[in-house]
């Protein structure tokens, strides 16, 4: 992925944030928010940001197609064929519930797939302007500085990380609570993948566990952490691919931490 393309996509995300998201930050009106599905909200900012981003991405790569979260909510058939050709994944406002609550914990995320493999990703924090980017084989960068995850091994009692249990079946939630007893801390997460994934690189979290795997939520951050030296895999150790939405993904600062977290959290039910 050449640097001009990386910069052009970053500019598109910044423009969408400036035009559609930040003017409404902590200024949403009652009519700007609605329930998309039970327990999940969408705002006019989500929709307008996607309307800005999608056509501009498509124009960057003739022949590519765009799969945006809000477009899929209207037309689920757009999810077909993620393993074919060049596909842009767009999460125009990750952490919408946080945004609605007035919290600054939200993000704008994009990933580019080539025949189903994530080859580039962008995660923008609109409030702080922090930009995290990665390209396959080209490394991970936060605000232009190349970043690496910690290579240190850790005991279970030294590991702290987030377990996103909202979509876990009830019986697995209890097993996770039992299995996590030996960890230093099990956190609820930021409720924003665009914040949680960079936290693994920065070292404020050693691991993450997700159950529901919508591709626009995880393709950007998974590539970012992997290119920084972290380990991203399904509970059985197999590769994560955005087109495969079977539940369950574990992210660790490195392979050793991934193994420790898996053993502590998941051994009772992953097999």
UniProtKB/TrEMBL annotation:
Binding site for Mg(2+) 2: 93
Chain sites annotated for binding Mg(2+) 1: 69, 91, 94, 217
GO function term, MF aspect, one: inositol monophosphate 1-phosphatase activity
Keywords: Magnesium, Metal-binding
Needed co-factor(s): Mg(2+)
SUPFAM superfamilies: Carbohydrate phosphatase
Cell cycle listed as a keyword: no
Biological process terms in GO annotation: inositol metabolic process; signal transduction
Family: Belongs to the inositol monophosphatase superfamily.
UniProt name for this protein: Fructose-1,6-bisphosphatase/inositol monophosphatase family enzyme
């Amino acid at each position: 992925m050449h640097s001009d393309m990386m910069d052009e996509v970053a500019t598109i995300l910044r423009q969408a944030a400036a035009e559609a998201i930040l003017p409404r930050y902590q200024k949403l009106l009652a009519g700007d928010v609605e329930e998309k599905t039970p327990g999940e909200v969408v705002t006019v900012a989500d929709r307008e940001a996607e309307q800005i981003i999608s056509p501009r991405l498509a124009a960057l790569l003739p022949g590519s197609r765009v799969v945006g979260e809000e477009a899929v909510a209207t037309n689920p058939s757009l999810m077909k064929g993620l393993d074919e050709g060049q596909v842009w994944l767009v999460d125009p406002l990750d952490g919408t519930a946080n945004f609605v609550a007035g919290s600054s914990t939200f993000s704008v995320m994009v990933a580019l797939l080539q025949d189903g493999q994530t080859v580039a990703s962008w995660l923008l924090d609109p409030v702080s302007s922090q930009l995290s980017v990665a390209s396959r084989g080209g490394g991970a960068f936060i605000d232009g500085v190349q970043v690496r995850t910690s290579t240190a091994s850790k005991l279970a009692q030294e590991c702290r990380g987030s377990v996103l249990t909202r979509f876990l079946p009830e019986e697995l939630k209890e097993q996770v609570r039992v299995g996590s007893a030996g960890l230093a801390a099990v956190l609820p997460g930021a409720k924003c993948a665009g914040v949680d994934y960079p936290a693994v690189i920065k070292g404020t979290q050693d691991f993450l566990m997700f159950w529901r795997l919508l591709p626009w939520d995880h393709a950007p951050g998974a590539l970012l952490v992997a290119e920084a030296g972290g380990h991203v895999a399904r509970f059985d150790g197999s590769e994560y691919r955005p087109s495969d939405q079977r539940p369950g993904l574990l992210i660790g600062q490195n392979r050793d931490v991934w193994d420790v977290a898996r053993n502590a959290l998941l051994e009772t039910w992953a097999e």
